Amino acid sequence: MAGDAHRIEAALAETLPLLPEERSWSFRDMLAVKSGLSIATWGFVFGGATGQLVGFVDGVIALLCGTAVGLGILFFALLLPVYRHGCESFVFVRSAFGSVGTSLLALVLMLGVVPFWSAILSKMAGDATQEVLIGLELLPSGPDWPVAGAIAIGVLILSCLLAAQGSNTLRRVNLALVPLLVLLSGGLLVAVFWQSGWQAVFSAQPPASPYDRATRLMLAVELNIVGGISWFGLAGNLMRYGRSARGAVWSTWIGLVPVSLLPALAGLASSLALGSSDPVQWMTPLVGPVIGLAMLLVLIMANMSTLIGMLQGNVPTSVQNFGRPARAIGFAGSVTALGVAAALILLLATDAIYDFFYTQIAFYGGVFAPAAGILLADGHVLRRSKVDVAHLHDTAGGPYRFWLGVNPAALIAMVAGFATYLAFLEPLGLTPSAAFRYLSASLPAIAAAFVVHLALSCLITIPAGRGGYRLRPGAARITATAEPAE
Question: At the fourth CATH level, which superfamily is domain 2-461?
Answer without folding.
Answer: Hydantoin permease (1.10.4160.10)
